[in-house]
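#struct-pred
JK: can someone run the complex with iron/sulfur cluster? inputs below
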Amino acid sequence: MIITNDLVEAFLKCPTKCFLQSCGEVGTGNAYATWVRTRNKVFRIEGTKRLVAGVAPDRCVIGTPAMGSPKSSQWHLGVDFAVQSQNLRCSCHAVEQIPSAGRGRTAQFVPIRFVSRNKLHRDDKLLLALDARVLSEVLRRGVSLGKIMYGENYATLKVKTSALATDVRKLTDKIGTLLASPSPPDLVLNRHCGECEFESRCRQKAIEKDDLSLLAGMTEKERTNFNSKGVFTITQLSHTVTRRTDAGGHLQAAPGLNHTGRWA
Ligand code: SF4
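RT: done, structure tokens with the ligand placed:
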């Protein structure tokens, strides 16, 4: 199974999403997910234009140039730069080639990613580090630095991708194990569901299972704690709670429940 950067991005949001995408399952759609995808696409197109404008036309390549050819050292900017090494495939948004600084020195390659949000997350850096890893394996040279262009002002953050190499390796190992499994991981509704194309499918399955993750106010730690005690469904949970009423017959708050008897 080829692990693409889209699958890694999905895994960072939710293992179930990664598994479903790897099986080619198509979600029923989600207006918010479509809006986010469009916003990212527009941001990337505009960012690419800005990068291209800063490079002489004959120093810019679209797509992946043949490595090792006499002309391979002549480009300074590659956009939509796809690379594959063994079972890892990345579609780098852009790659900058910094010519060698003198005899005996090699050119430096710097992957660039576009992120439309004003605030970056660790996942953005991990995805950049994945680009750097695959690029490094294909070029057979170290790629220790990458850049993220982000936010409404297209600010640039330099990221030391070599510092994330171990995390990226662990991540791709986990994804490899997940994709080798014949069955999907346990379904757990999470914060990303609201912007996921599989939202209707997963919510329906969670309702059928009466799954604890339907209780949005319950933290992962609390759910894991209940699971370790053999409590997996809302019905089972309700049996563990002693409901008390006050003198007026009103339901009193019990640990973890609010005054309406629902999980707080
Ligand atoms: S809807 Fe939620 S649980 Fe289902 S794949 Fe998407 S993020 Fe994961």
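RT: quick notes.
The longest strand covers residues 88-98.
The pocket of iron/sulfur cluster is lined by residues 13-14, 16-17, 20, 187, 189-190, 192-193, 196, 198-199, 202 (CB under 6 Å).
JK: thanks, will look after standup
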